[in-house]
Amino acid sequence: MSLGTVICLLRRMVLPDSRHADTIGCSRRSGWNSCKLPITVITGSLLSLKSGWYSMARAPQPLFETYDNFIEQDFSMHGSPLACVASFLNECEAALEPDRGYAAVRAFLRAFSDNAQTFNSYRSHTERLLLWALLVQGKPLNHLKRQDAQDYLDFCRTPPADWVGPVTRSRFLDNPGAVDAREAWMPNPKWHPFNMKSSKAMAAESTSTQHYQAANGTLNQVYTVCSRFYEFLIEDGFTQANPFRLLKKGNRFSTQEHEVASSRALTPLQWDFVLDTVEEMANAEPERHERTLFIVATLFAMYLRVSDLAGRKNWKPTMGDFRLDDEGNWWYFTVGKGNKAAKIAVRDVYVERYLKRYRRFLGLSELPHPGESTPLIKTLKGRAGLSDRQIRALLQAVFDKAVEKMRSEGRANHEMESLRCASAHWLRHTSATFDAPLRNPKDLQEDLRHSNLSTTQNTYYHAHDQERAHSVKRIGMRDRG
After folding, report:
1. Which residue in 183, 197, 270, 453 is a FRET match for 315, CA 20 to 30 A apart?
2. What does the alpha-carbon distance between residue 222 and residue 128 come to, in Å, rounded to a whole number?
3. DSSP letters for 446-471
């Protein structure tokens, strides 16, 4: 019996309606943590959970709006624009960092809000994950470990009955008692994180008596979106690790055997497809995708973070940030994490093939001149700069097209699996991984802007699985020559 099912049973046995928590000596603010009632007998057995006590979860509710309402909100405002969501988060234990978790999911959804269908899919999966972390697992999002990820996938396969319901048209309803705009909406009581589509013959049957079980394809999608979410959080500095990365889906969630690589680098084959794809996009639609090609090439060539192209509050990148020294070497000057200024060595092939190409497309001289103020990247309408969200959306479109190209050419599933999880930050890791065998570790450390050489050595000075296997494949057992 899963932990989620146990909680569900306890809630129905002991506390049918969480609104009545006060009647058994629990405050609404702290819920069951302030209650002195221990976990008792379930089906005749005493359940012991670590300390012998458990924080009883409230019923889940929607946290994020519809696509149209989400993209129109004021993102400079801290927290949710809906009072009912803010109240829900406020009632969670402070140690669970609910506001930070909500902000992390909102930032991720905003980064992928250029497409309504993608947004709706990502919202469903990340909203469920946040609700599960707060209400079931009792951990902040950035504290989840590998076993937690496994528990979550188990939970998604067979969620408790009170997390499952029929498809509803509205996540929120009009609040007739609203006194201001923030109170205009209230959660739809018929909404559930998981939905069951039932036939008319089953419609009259209570959803509590119907059995929900996620298909393998659904679980694969849960894994892919959650893994991509954590790669985004790593890039933004919210967490240090992706708890989903090391899970073996093949053993439990899929009929196909495959293991997700522990590295966040593309394979050489995948990178070739990505570069071929974006070059084809640029050739087919130069007005839209010459810029996309320049972004991909620039991030890869200099191990950049997205913020190195988008800029920061006190610094916006320009073409003048490319500078030529007295010995004919090109450098890119940037302002990185912690507002630290740095310069990065620029490879010749990038200058010749991509920097010159993009500048010719813009109608500029082939090479930047000292002090040039031309914005490094512009919108299609000519406005200076792109946001982090816009750059990530462009890169995600390239990755998705590269996967489609691999599939159309008959590539095996294992050859493109990790590319499905790739994010913008993977270009930095991919380039550093490829270059490590060819560069002095200290030089690579300087261009990656790692504070410690050990970080560079431990992360990048290893072989790809393919190279590792090839290096031993033809070594004999006796003949060492």
Report:
1. 453
2. 10
3. HHHT-S-HHHHHHHHSS--HHHHHHH
pTM beyond cutoff 0.85: no
| 302 contacts 332 by C-beta, under 8 angstroms | yes
Amino acid at 460: Y
Q: What is the DSSP letter of 477?
A: S
Q: Tens digit of pLDDT for each residue in 361-374?
A: 999 999 999 999 99
Taking alpha carbons only, the member of 365, 125, 82 closest to residue 226 is 125
pLDDT of 39 > 50? The answer is no
pLDDT value of residue 18: 37
Residue type, 439: R
Q: Where in the chain is the domain with CATH 1.10.443.10?
A: 264-481
**Which CATH class for the 264-481 domain?**
mainly alpha
Residues 6 or more apart in contact with residue 387 via CB below 8 angstroms: 310
Instruction: Assess whether pLDDT exceeds 90 at residue 405.
Output: yes
Q: Where are the alpha helices (DSSP H) in 36-164?
A: 67-72, 83-90, 98-111, 116-132, 146-157
Question: What mean pLDDT comes out for the span 23-44?
Answer: 37
Give the C-alpha distances (Å, rounded to integers) separating 377 from 284, 290, 425.
20, 11, 18
Dump pLDDT digits (tens) for 55-89: 344 789 999 999 888 988 888 888 899 999 999 99
Nearest to 64, CA basis, from 12, 156, 128: 128
Residues 6+ positions from 392 with CB-CB distance below 8 Å: 111, 112, 232, 306, 423, 424
Q: At CA 285, angle to CA 284 and CA 291, rounded to 5?
A: 120
Contacts with 215 (C-beta within 8 Å, 6 or more apart), sequence order: none
Could you tell me which of 100, 107, 109, 102 has the C-alpha nearest to residue 67?
A: 109
Distances (CA, A) of 288 to 101, 258, 294: 35, 36, 11
Query: For residues 56 and 136, what is the distance between their CA atoms, to the nearest angstrom?
Result: 8
d(CA 316, CA 384): 9
Strand ranges (E), 212-281: none
Among 214, 181, 265, 231, residue whose Cα is nearest residue 436: 265
DSSP per-residue string spanning 133-163: IIIII---GGG--HHHHHHHHHHHHS--GGG
Q: Is 166 helix (H, G, I), strand (E, B) or coil?
A: strand
Torsion angle (degrees, nearest 10) of CA 12, 16, 20, 23: -60
Residue 477: Cβ-neighbour burial (10 angstroms; 0-12, 13-18, 19+): exposed
Q: Which of 45-49, 95-99, 146-150 has the lowest mean pLDDT?
A: 45-49
330 DSSP β-pair partners: 324
Enter the tokens of residue 225.
């979106």
